[in-house]
Write a structure and sequence with these properties.
The structure is a single chain. Strands 1, 2, 3, 4, 5, 6, 7, 8 and 9 form a nine-stranded mixed β-sheet that branches. It contains nine helices and nine strands. Helix content is about 35%, strand content about 25%. Helix 7 packs parallel to helix 9.
Length: about 240
């Protein structure tokens, strides 16, 4: 059956990956294990030079694989969004994992609360290498030490709302989601917060924010640009 973009009730998951062979399989498996299965899982290989494509090739429908020359996570996510058919969009970094109820809880929140543009959830950050235990959900599913997840992997968003804000900006080396969420806030998008851990975020030496010494500079510039945009839209005398 042919599906056109934006068909009601369908979820597209976009997983950007660059040299993520040690982690990608676990990320994909956490999506396929969702109690509310997505319509499709789009793995976007960002010019990897390791065995990433071989790992992605292990999977058949609903997983499909796109490739691009190395251009960064923002460009990879944008390619996935352009190809996505679902009316709900979700994102997962290739070295993280979802809790099994992530999509079910968030899709239910959006169904029950139609004025919401998207749903977030709580995140737990765990230090782990490629050997991250498959039993992590049994040990780390409580809200202790968890924080509200203002990160791409903790979000489910309506496609129409996402496109009102626009695609991820590719000139940021890091922090492209911080920039996107700032623009979403400026556009008055409304997000609900599921009171559960929906994302386990792996902290390791290869995290882009850790290996990129200019990350703080990008974050500072993103905040400044957001403040500048807000000031420029204020009415005189407001």
């Amino acid at each position: 059956m042919a599906v056109t973009p934006g068909v009601a009730g369908t979820i597209s998951v976009v997983i950007p990956v660059f040299n993520g062979a040690p982690y990608l399989g676990e990320a994909v498996e956490s999506v396929l294990a969702q109690t509310h299965p997505p319509f499709e899982v789009i793995v976007v290989d960002d010019g990897s030079t390791d065995e990433t494509l071989a790992v992605a090739a292990r999977y058949s429908a609903p997983v499909r694989v796109l490739t691009q020359p190395h251009a960064g996570a923002a460009a990879a996510r944008n390619l996935g969004v352009d190809a996505a058919l679902g009316d709900l969009l979700a994102f997962l970094d290739a070295d993280d994992r979802w809790a099994p109820l992530k999509l079910e809880r968030q899709a239910e929140m959006l169904r029950r609360t139609p004025h919401l543009d998207g749903a977030l959830g709580y995140v737990r950050q765990l230090r782990a290498g490629p050997e991250w235990s498959a039993t992590v959900s049994a040990v780390h599913n409580g809200l202790e030490a968890a924080t509200p997840g203002y990160v791409a992997g903790a979000m489910l968003v309506r496609r129409t709302a996402f496109l009102r804000v626009g695609l991820f900006r590719t000139h940021w080396r890091t922090g492209e989601f911080i920039d996107w969420f700032a623009r979403a806030d400026e556009a008055a998008l409304q997000f609900g917060l599921v009171p559960e851990v929906v994302l386990w975020r792996r902290i390791h030496a290869s995290n882009s924010g850790l290996r990129n010494p200019d990350a703080v500079v990008d974050y500072t510039r993103i905040v400044r640009e957001s403040l500048r945009r807000r000031r420029s839209t204020r009415q005189p005398g407001a």
